[in-house]
Design a protein that fits this description.
This protein is α/β, with parallel strands linked by helices. 32% of the residues lie in helices and 22% in strands. The strands form three sheets. The protein has a four-stranded parallel sheet with strand order 5-4-6-9, sandwiched between helices. It has a three-stranded antiparallel sheet with strand order 1-2-3, with no helix packed on it. The N and C termini lie far apart (53 Å).
Length: 264
């Protein structure tokens, strides 16, 4: 018999997040990465992805760079996957930094490597419970990154199924079933989670800008959510791994975001 009190955890249910310290349950887990520097505000980790190594500064909540929680500037949050994190791009050249340098907002980068649309919606929901945002820029990935609430001897936690091949026999079977579904299933999930984002934004009076670097998700946003769309995040160059956007792409995307913020 399931004991549902085991699921009553802020890392499982966003409604249980009551203070900013609970954000640690949604940030990156760097326990397996090499710590190369640490002070009272950041921890610098050396991270290797597909044989490419880079160093990133993370705050105490597991998100990129230090946050300024004590100033009078309006806050802007940036949500999404590694494209928002700025994988293999220096902190001062990623689009979140470039935008806030121009607009004068206080920058909160909530980008997480590998995050799907549902995980992005979760993080957006919890962030708004503890941080007063004026704007949120939400850059979504493709719709095939599915969250699965796993419950085994290692505890109860979310797995991103697209990145969990050979986890165990049960998960492999679940992956096989889910990824046999047609696109309508994934479109439904994407629309449901984007509506969750919009509902949260309306509740907390946050102005949201939606975009995607992936063609199908970008078209979905344009056609179904045109009031929030700022168009696709275009790739003009690539970073060290030749997969993620480079500094020129970040700069051009930042200009697009600044244009929309300045017009409102």
């Amino acid at each position: 018999m399931l004991r549902f009190n085991a699921f009553a955890h802020p890392g499982i249910s966003p409604s249980l997040v009551n203070n900013i310290d609970d954000l640690v349950h949604y940030g990156a887990d760097n326990s397996k990465n090499k710590l190369v520097y640490q002070d009272s505000e950041i921890s610098r980790y050396e991270i290797t992805v597909d044989k490419h190594t880079y160093e990133y500064d993370f705050n105490q909540y597991g998100f990129r760079n230090k946050w300024n929680l004590d100033n009078n500037k309006p806050n802007i949050g940036f949500f999404g996957c590694s494209f928002t994190l700025g994988e293999f791009v220096a902190q001062d050249k990623i689009f979140s930094t470039l935008v806030t340098r121009q607009t004068g907002h206080n920058d909160f980068n909530f980008g997480l490597s590998g995050a799907g649309i549902e995980r992005t919606a979760q993080v957006f929901a919890v962030a708004n419970r503890v941080i007063d945002l004026e704007y949120a820029v939400i850059t979504l990935p493709d719709w095939h990154r599915i969250l699965y609430l796993n419950n085994d001897a290692n505890g109860i936690f979310y797995l991103n199924l697209i990145h969990t091949s050979n986890y165990n026999k049960k998960i492999d079977e679940i992956r096989k079933i889910l990824y046999s579904f047609d696109n309508e299933y994934f479109i439904h999930q994407a629309i449901r989670n984007i509506n969750w984002i919009i509902d949260v934004a309306e509740k907390y009076s946050v102005k949201i800008l939606l975009s995607s670097w992936e063609d199908s998700t970008s078209k979905l946003i344009d056609d179904v959510f045109p009031a929030y769309s700022i168009g696709r995040y275009e790739m003009h160059d690539r970073s060290l791994d030749q997969i993620h956007p480079g500094p020129v792409s970040h700069e051009n995307y930042a200009k697009k975001i600044i244009k929309y913020i300045s017009a409102n």
